[in-house]
Amino acid sequence: MSRRKESDDAGSTTGAVTGATAATPARSRRGRKGQPDAVAEADRAVKRKNQLTPRWWIFLMVGLMVAGLLWIVVFYLSSALLPVPGWDNWNLVAGFGLVLVGFAMTTRWR
């Protein structure tokens, strides 16, 4: 009987070997150490995408919109003589262009 028990123990060691297959993912992760993990890379991409915009972005965005508005106001108050005398009505295009660039920057603001 003791021999059977030893064979049963031997059978249980084969069970331990199948339990060792559960350790293979850890081994496979170690084998891919130089390669980036796809899930971790996706997480880093999401974090980069969801980062807050820098403070200078907000100041530049608002500054462009205010500068465009002031450009248009100066153009109308000076009876089309200022801010650039030779541009005539193209001063309006420049002013609205500044405002539109500022508004376009708001789409990237987080």
Strand content: under 5%
Uncertain residue segments: none
Largest sheet: none
Total number of helices? 5
Give the CA-based shape.
Answer: rod-shaped
How confident overall, as mean pLDDT? 79
State the order of secondary-structure elements, H for helix, E for strand.
HHHHH
Q: Between the first and last Cα atoms, what is the distance in angstroms?
A: 75 Å
**Helical percentage:** over 70%
**What gyration radius follows from the Cα positions, in whole Å?**
34 Å
Secondary structural class: mainly alpha
* E-strand count: 0
Membrane topology: Multi-pass membrane protein
Organism: Kineococcus radiotolerans
Region (Disordered): 1-43
Family: Belongs to the CrgA family.
Characterize the structure shown:
α4 runs antiparallel to α5. The protein has a domain at 52-107. By secondary structure, it is mainly α. The N and C termini lie far apart (75 Å). The mean pLDDT is 79. It is built from five helices and no strands. The chain crosses the membrane at residues 56-78, 90-109. Pfam families: CrgA. Belongs to the CrgA family. Keywords: Cell cycle, Cell division, Cell membrane, Membrane, Transmembrane, Transmembrane helix.
